[in-house]
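Researcher: Please generate the 3D structure of the following complex. Treat every line as part of one assembly.
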Amino acid sequence: MKNATPTTAPNASASSERVTVTLDMVAKRAGVSPSTVSRILNGTAVVSEAKRQAVMDATQALGFVPNPLARGLAGGKTFSIGVVTQAIDSPFYGAALRGVEDALDPAGYSPLFMSAHWDPAAEARCLDVLRSRRVDGIVVLMPRLSDSALEACAQTLPMVVTGRDLRGPQLYSLNFDNFNGGRMATEHLIAQGHRQIAFIAGADEHPDAAERMRGYRYALAEAKIAFDPRLVVPGQYHEVSGLEAAKTLVQQGLPFTAIFASNDQMASGAALGLFQSGLRVPQDVALVGFDDLPTSMYATPPLSTIQQPAYDLGRLAACAMLELLAGNTPTEELPAPALLVRASSDSLRV
Amino acid sequence: MKNATPTTAPNASASSERVTVTLDMVAKRAGVSPSTVSRILNGTAVVSEAKRQAVMDATQALGFVPNPLARGLAGGKTFSIGVVTQAIDSPFYGAALRGVEDALDPAGYSPLFMSAHWDPAAEARCLDVLRSRRVDGIVVLMPRLSDSALEACAQTLPMVVTGRDLRGPQLYSLNFDNFNGGRMATEHLIAQGHRQIAFIAGADEHPDAAERMRGYRYALAEAKIAFDPRLVVPGQYHEVSGLEAAKTLVQQGLPFTAIFASNDQMASGAALGLFQSGLRVPQDVALVGFDDLPTSMYATPPLSTIQQPAYDLGRLAACAMLELLAGNTPTEELPAPALLVRASSDSLRV
DNA sequence: TTGTAGGCGTTATCAG
DNA sequence: CTGATAACGCCTACAA
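Model: Done. Output below.
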């Protein structure tokens, strides 16, 4: 990271350096042709060691930095990859984007982030903008576009998507096992002795929300606990809806001793709702979330949850893209869901 | 947003469209020269209405989208602006970045996000990368680089920074009144009858952390409350440090009835620390944070805090950049700090 | 008003 | 192995 800076190098840095140093200037100074400089800098061909040194020296001395725009125009590769996220200000996507950054940076690629806000039309627009910017590939986190639209896009560019099961020559996907996650959360509650377990569902359009619910129902069935639709309240994956859901449950009067919220944000809202209703977590009601947001372990009380590795999701998606770009077949896989038991569902830990 | 799509327009969209449509093709189809097309599309000159129509039609029909790379190479403007954030996965920066997105998008500019992780060297690298990518301007959120380094950079490019007071021909800054924020938070606690108010400080390197502390001390002095250094514990602006700070305070044995944490993340950690120590918020200890993160109102109990408009911070910074780019002198100002009293510091609200 | 020519900084394709 | 010579797609004088 920290190469000793040769005294000859006026490394532009965040300082002066007015004129732009071009490849031609390097070529001239090194006494070779521009093409040779290009070849050396890109390792496109074998070059004599002598010229090689001369070019490297000149590059250093002049502080030459290739112009990505020109590179993109001429060569077709821009070394930037488009990343479509749904909300850059969501804790979940934030972690994922950081994973993307961390994976792309060392490879010399720059991410180009765009938010689609769960709107298919906006998502399509993102793809268009990204393609017009000539990105080398596109990663879509939790797309809302149809499989076919994504597949169509993959005909033109390497694509990696998460939250789907799509494969193709230029298409790779990474999916999380939401079903088993939902099942594990519910089984944990059942193991703790709970029989009346409420469920705060996620937005209908989210396929993963449906999977989590399926896991919930599966676990209930396995335990021979009758499914009571009245204990299932809708949510929208954000705090307010969790708060409202909890209040609905309380007001409804139907007894319940535990809540499984299909994501941490709603669990957080539900915790507040219970608190405001005078119910203690976990003494009166046990609570389990889903995602394991960075803040969940610092909630009061710390929230039990299913760990969904958002950071790794982003990182692996980016790695897969790098593989695709290198012409390889990606093999990255997401880790299996893991249950994190914390105080919110375990009275012994309080 | 939703123009009726003319039947003649095969709007590439997220679909097929193999070949790239160039400006020359549009020119040919419209029966004019490339330069005319360029002029019309950029409004660079006055053109006859007839040709104008012809070009617009051809553009539509062909679904032409100008290549930003070529545009950047030839004209110098890339319509992308670099945005240096410290951590893309922080709730505070997340909100700010969303503000940036929202302001830039309608103006036709794309943000290029990079994270510096509070490391000056990394920040310098971000600036270099961004400049090498030929962005039209750079916005730095809460820079760690020296004023002079930023000013130097502003000689080359329009710059907008937050958390500093810097002005220049190509440089604009947006600063938040951390001193008064800290003061208001403390005064609130004092008004609630508290005399022993602990303070969880922020990282030393953050200038805003020092300002908040100054506000704390100022308010104490105003109220003739002796400043007790033992009630000030260091923090790092993240949850763990708040948790540890609270435990330190409790173990220390010195009585205190309130805590002012210099940011919400630490306040959240402190809340957990108090909880684990068997202390109730606000009955035993009142708690006030700083920032008003989106999640703070859903904390258990909801956290009183000083509202720092992160979203607006980003939005206004981006707007200022747009002004700079348009050759105007920005005039955006950040709103004054506001105190939000919630249950964590008000027993009546619980 | 509008067309022509040249160039922005690289890479790629050919010869040599 | 290396050097010309085209593009890449668009913008901007300059000339008409």
